[in-house]
Prior knowledge:
17 strands, five-stranded parallel β-sheet, FAD/NAD(P)-binding domain, elongated, alpha/beta, 2 domains
Amino acid sequence: MYDIIVIGGGPAGLTAALYARRANKTVLVIEKGTFGGQITFSPKVENIPGFAQITGNEFAEKLVEQTLEQGAEVECCEVLEIKDGDVKTVVTDGGDFEGKAVIIATGAKHRMLGLEGEEKLVGEGISFCAVCDGAFYAEKTVAVIGGGNSALQEAILLSDIAAKVYVVQNLDFLTGESRLAQQLEAKENVEIILGTTVKSLKGENELKGITLEKTSDGSVRELELDGMFVAVGLVPQNEFCCKVVKLDGNGYVDADESCLTDRAGIFTAGDCRKKKIRQVVTAAADGAAAAMAACDYIESLG
């Protein structure tokens, strides 16, 4: 049995494991996908204290290495449910694990557009990561769907690779940082299309293009594309714990900055919890707070 089981291997979960190990607690980190979380999709990160510039992958690798050196154990499997009790049982597709406390740090996943045939075309012209797949579209035509920071960063990176980049935003303005918007607007091979939604996809086994609809008048426009990068936000991955802890109306764990859930011995951290700001530094801060709270809980057990 472990002192603390951390569900999720992103910045929140790994920071929680790091702090828990430094408090001399036995720790298991369970991750079903890629250790490092969503930041691994960021080609350039400039807002982490101590790093003028670093790629998301580099940061994730450093954090994983640091956590492992502190003695945390890891398992690669998917959590199916948490059984509450004096001892917490985390049920996974790779077996059951017991712990005195659990920290839910599952983060969030990419939001889809909800279009017919979309899932089938993921990896066949639809992508979520320019740093991962941008090279496939050298001197080709692509579109980025979204207008926030992630979308603008993707478009800027792609503008240095692709021949033409369309940025399609459903609102009448870009919601990302003005600095990024200005940088993008200065690119000669970038066309920004505002107040427009993606109506449908073209192509059966490979993306060939998209049909756009202008929200103001319903007019339709078609774009011939080689690729499309979707950057329209994230959704929490908390389905497995909905019967154990309280979630808000959007599916995020209902917890404040204390990272305490409504169940004793179960804590949360990072993008999976209800919060206003979702950045790597706030995820790491959550991880530290959740770990300290979990350690206090374990000490209270006597």
